[in-house]
Amino acid sequence: MGNEEMRFSPEERQSLAAYAASARWPAGFTVYQRGAAADGVFVVLSGHVVLRTRLKGGRAFVPAVVRVGELFGTEGLTAGALYHTDARADAESQTLHLGRLRLQTLLRERPDLGLSLLAQIGRANAALLDRLRELAALSVEQRLLAAVSRAATARADGGADAPVVFDAAGYRLLCEMVGATRESVSLVVNRLVAEGVAARDGSTVSIHPPRSFPASAERLLGHALAGSEEQVAS
User: Fold this and answer.
1) H or E segment at 98?
2) Which run of H or E residues covers position 25?
């Protein structure tokens, strides 16, 4: 699935703004917390929002980094729902919030835009299912390379083949996206440095994204799942 397919176009975002409430969030601000009452859905207009699930021992897992044109908080479309993650603006960000009542108006007045919204919800859910497949079937190294590739394709400069640079905060986020301990991720990064795929400069790490992703990831998943089926059969 192409990166642009996961986003509302600028024209669609402008049309959504007529039905939604706009808000700006400073870097580090919590948009909502897990367990809070959920209503409607958010669309990112600028910056990015990190969805995070807290784990034991101070660890966390990041199922998604939501970027410009993408949506989050879809659990709020169900009456009486609660949010299932923390949502934090890791950079200064602007969002639209479309509550359920306003969504009803949008669907009545702009069914074409409503269908586009439903399509984006389906694509976001598909991306989350892919993340679950990765966690179940891929190694820490494979999940790390998948996360690096996603970060590369999301860059505004379009330099998908250039190394992705992680400062200290970015490296912590990378570990949370991989869903592994910092120690496990560091072991993989050290191996990639030895192979010339990554480099360290103080607390900064740069990693070359794998080529032909997501096709390569699909092959990895296929091999991993085939291996699991053979173990069950034996």
Assistant:
1) strand 93-98
2) strand 21-25
What CATH class is the domain 4-134?
mainly beta
Token pair, residue 156, equals 């505004």
Residue 132 buriedness (CB in 10 A; 0-12 / 13-18 / 19+): exposed
- Mean pLDDT, consecutive 10-residue segments, the chain of 234 residues? 69 95 97 95 96 87 94 92 96 96 95 94 92 92 92 70 90 94 95 94 92 52 51 46
- Helix boundaries (H) for 166-214: 168-178, 182-194
- What is 139-233's CATH topology? Arc Repressor Mutant, subunit A (1.10.10)
Match 């790490």 to its residue by tokens. 205
- What is the model's pTM? 0.83
Q: What is the pLDDT of residue 58?
A: 78
Query: Where on the phi/psi map is residue 169: left (φ > 0), alpha (ψ -120 to 50), or beta?
Result: alpha
Using CA atoms, how far apart are residues 79 and 10, in angstroms rounded to an integer? 29
Q: Return the bridge partners of 156, or none.
A: none
